[in-house]
Predict the 3D structure of the following.
Amino acid sequence: MANNQKRLVIISGAGLSAESGIQTFRDDNGLWANHNVDQICNINTWKKNFKLVHNFYNARRKELKNKTPNAMHYQIYEWQKQLKQNCIIITQNIDDLLEKAGCENVIHLHGFANKIYCFDCKYKYEDLQYKPYNFKPCIKCNSKWIKPDIVFFGEAAPKYSILYSVVSSLNNNDMLLVIGTSGAVININGLASLNNALKILNNLHQEIYIDATLFDYVFYEKATTAASKIDEIIKKWQNR
């Protein structure tokens, strides 16, 4: 019988959603290649570029409406359904594909595309459901500074403390699964070194920022083709 106390922690990046047609930010043809990041994602310049910033994220929100989860999103949902609260899902992605697949309590490290908040009074608006922000002032304090609920460059990322707390608490009964991240933003090597859990890495190819020798299993392939292979490992891990 599986040990229900075993924990599976999943950390995902842009590679998870790329096969669903969501453009990555850092690749050669990614969104940063076609936009000035210092104008649309910088805490020090966003007010100066207020309209440009919201037009960019309004477009991202519109794109999400018709995007559908892929096989790995659904596989993650199945793992969470089996392990319940012992499956902790952490993502760098701002899309809602994990939620569309049925996942709950997803920790979005860098924010959520469908949400906005007032930068002055901190009032958080309800999920916009893919609708554009209409440039109206805050309904609570009348401030004009409504900000996408995205962690901008130069801004603190409060949920990183959750990330490090969860990963550092893992033991040799647990598993850490890393999917579709370059390691350029999050120190994957550092996270992998924090514990002696069983570790799996799935990226499209080798990344210069990630030391694959820190992982017990490595799959350099699409997340959708790796999903069933990783599931087999997880089934054995659950029953060991």
